[in-house]
Amino acid sequence: MTAPLTSSSLQSVLVANRGEIARRVFRTARAMGMRCIAVFIDADADAPFVQEADEAVRLPSTYLDADAVLAAAKTTGAAAIHPGYGFLSENAAFARAVIDAGIRWVGPSPEVIESMGDKIAAKRVATEAGVPTLPSSEDPTADAEVGYPLLVKASAGGGGKGIRLVESSTDLDEAVASARREALSGFGDETVFLERYVASSRHVEIQVLGDSRGNVVHLGERECSIQRRHQKIVEESPSPVVDAEMRSAMGEAALALARHMSYESAGTVEFLVDDATREFFFLEVNTRLQVEHPVTEEVTGIDLVREQLRIAGGAELGYGQDDINWTGSAIEVRLYAEDPNNDFLPAIGTLSAYRPANEPVVRWDSGVEQGSVVGVDFDPMLAKVIAHGPTRSEAACRLALALERMHLGGVVTNRDFLVATLRNEAFLAGDTTTDFIERVDPRDSQAAADIVTAAIVAAMWIQGRNRSVDDVWGFAPSNFRTGSLPLQHIDFELGGSATSSETTELHRVAYARQRGGSFVLGTGETVAVHDWTPDDIEVEIGRRRLRAAVTVEAGVAYVTLGRTTVTLLVKPRFTVPGSELPTGGLVAPMPGSVVEVRCAVGDEVTAGQVLVVLEAMKMEHHIAAPFDGTVAELPIAAGGQVGNGALLLTIEEAE
Residue 390, exposed/middle/buried by CB under 10 A (0-12, 13-18, 19+)? Predict the structure, then answer.
């Protein structure tokens, strides 16, 4: 359905955000004829969203500098400010300042943002509107009133931050203290509350739209149950368990709340659904565009950014609830720089290889490109990948294949984990409760045969590159002799798939070029190279013919064939010995800052005891002793910064 065209005074828009969401807003704004303005900090100076903007303004410090963002809007003559999500998107004071400056705010009123920005206040409003809520308490010591298991939740939180699951009263004090620290760091407000935890549940949310004339509609539900650390990684619409009756009931509850607040713009009313009883309970209202909004766009055909800009320009919705139709199924996954084999901890590095597949056709909403640096300053999401199909299973398989065929390397990612999830039988059956990852553990391993093939492909590509850059002897095969050619070889240390942080055994590919142009391997197999380019290669190994994308940079080869990208370390002929980690040494699993050090040299510690608390990307990570022993070295201090793999402390194991 397409909303009627309505004249608008908006000729330009500044996006007070970065990366993927800035590019997403620009795409729609350009289609509407608007001039697009970006703001950026030094770390993003070369980012794609800055290059795509019609004009960009460098901020002096951070994206949270509201005064600097507003000054940039005034300097560039921006007619409107779109906040995206995160940063200033749910900052009522900033929204009020924008409006007071005579600039259109693309979002709901500051009063609504204020009331919904506090989860405690939001629950009160939901109760007033007649929306069911979970048992909770604003008193963090009232655990007996709420009951176990329970969640400690940041009142001003979002994005999974400031949340702790508590199973018993013995863990409550530590959970409250940790959640408060994380909430204060992430949101500037350490207020927390307790809420009943439903173990087998689903996270289902309703998308709403409202205009300034009191017209409100809902666009159906999204299920976002598959999460790690209370952060979503797979979202879909419609939900596999929501029928027409439940959709109507949840939609009416969301609309009742939206009307009660006089809601304008796009917003999301989030519910928790008990998987056993199908009861639903209010969680919160997100007064902004959601990361997962594309799945709603795919099934309804409504561009939510366009609707936001139309409403901000004073337009009416121009359609009612009966005009909303849903077609097919859409699924979105969040491609992150993180290691599923290391508790999904964030990863950093340079995207040496990053090329989305041309087929099957899916939607790529990405803020990075090949060569982008993934650092510690921002959320490690690389892209949102969205597939739409006539059925849920077809959308899932299409999305899995697109991910498998993506050329990706240089940073540890969750790509293979996402593929394994989409192809998992439990997922395809719709068994997608919030404990899906712990209960199902949808992991996959790279087949040994694929790794061996990747090594052969990499060796053939490297010899082809060597010939292509040799202006003198490039016409001749390696180690050319007038007699027979000896075997050449390349040694690889196999790193498995692009999502693995582990290395395996050394593997040697020996080969010699034959007079007919093909190659014979040390194993006796014959390899023919049918095509070579700087980006890929087509080879025939025995009777198997295949094309693979290849990137080799800084001694690492990334080979995409079949199901994933295999990472191969190209071993030099002579290796300089490196330093080794001391026995009993604990290292930082990611770069970050040291929040707490709970031990000193000479302290006796026990296995499982938390010794160091790190913070990375606004999330806390506890480093515990792996065994009983005595702290021998402690080169860090609270407030300091550590790099990935840095030594935190050394423990001498007890006799």
Answer: exposed
